[in-house]
């Protein structure tokens, strides 16, 4: 039987078809095996983690999932809200370098006048205090307390500041069973401030303990009102910081009405530009360590260093100036040359003491008191860098 050319071609095509089928089957088996490994990997990894073997390798290949709460807290910037734990541990002061803490993590404070009270939730409070609930519903504190439920829960918005309310709910007329924030309340002022500092400790308030305001029995609510919105910022008890300070410091407020004054009435600065009402290491609650550092924050040209320094200037700016307001030019404590003669008397010139009677409208007018007086010649009175400036002429 003879084989034709066509038969040979048909046989070759059949062989190629068989080879292609074999290759396709091998490829399919390889793909199935790979998918099997992928599908079976998570369960195998979990089994390794349960058995305590291969944990490092499984963690290296485990795909990333959703961010956890600890991840979010680690990414948040530092804030004063993270320092409250130190206060509860008995620390007198706390720093503000801790991680950010959610508002709803604020602890429910203990009321020493109702030690056995339990938390009952904001819904029970609003059942009686409907008006207060409406006023505080838009406030930052209540909105923040209701934002989550990590520790105190969204229903602890009232009790996070006022303490547990079960005893107060049983006997609403009895004073002291709830933490109240007024001076005529039975709640001691130190309990009121300690409750606020449980969250707001540290930062600008790290020197509150021992400050003049704390020593005189001031409460946080003397300056702040977190229950309503009276100010644009700072939950103040009045429209502005200056008005809050002027509530007590009326004598200082009157000094700003003098003809030469700091630009506070014009709204170009406020009391807290120089002072820290929450406490500082200085007696007048300055934001810096010294008076000169505070003044030189704005008056940098008076800072120096100078080749020839004027001793009273380098010592304290208040030797010559009254910081809040004066009826003399440039906030001077006295008119020139009377101010200069507080130190320079019977030396050099003039050797006679000039008084107010030597002014233009006095009984004995003297030409040396007219106009700028000593400053006509000694113009660089704050200090001089000129080689010929020993007398502050230039």
Total helical elements? 15
What number is the mean pLDDT? 77
Lateral strand order in the biggest sheet: 1-3
Helix content: 25-40%
Number of DSSP strands?
Answer: 4
Q: How far apart are the termini?
A: 132 Å
* Biggest β-sheet strands, sense, barrel: 2 strands, antiparallel
Low-pLDDT stretches are 37-64, 76-101
Alpha-beta classification? mainly alpha
- The fraction of residues assigned to DSSP E strands is under 5%
Secondary structure elements and pairings:
Layout: H1 5-51, H2 55-61, H3 69-75, H4 84-88, H5 122-128, H6 130-136, H7 140-145, H8 159-162, H9 166-170, H10 189-200, H11 212-215, H12 241-246, H13 250-255, E1 260-261, H14 291-296, E2 308-309, H15 311-315, E3 325-326, E4 383-384
Antiparallel strand pairs: 1-3, 2-4
Can you walk through the features of this model?
Residues 158-225 form the Cytochrome c-type protein NrfB-like domain. This protein is mainly α. Among the domains are: 80-206, no CATH class; 300-384, no CATH class. Helix content is 34%, strand content 2%. It has 15 helices and 4 strands. The chain has helices at 5-51, 55-61, 69-75, 84-88, 122-128, 130-136, 140-145, 159-162, 166-170, 189-200, 212-215, 241-246, 250-255, 291-296, 311-315, and strands at 260-261, 308-309, 325-326, 383-384. Strands 1-3 form a two-stranded antiparallel sheet. It is flat and about 145 Å long. The model is unreliable at 37-64 and 76-101 (pLDDT under 50).
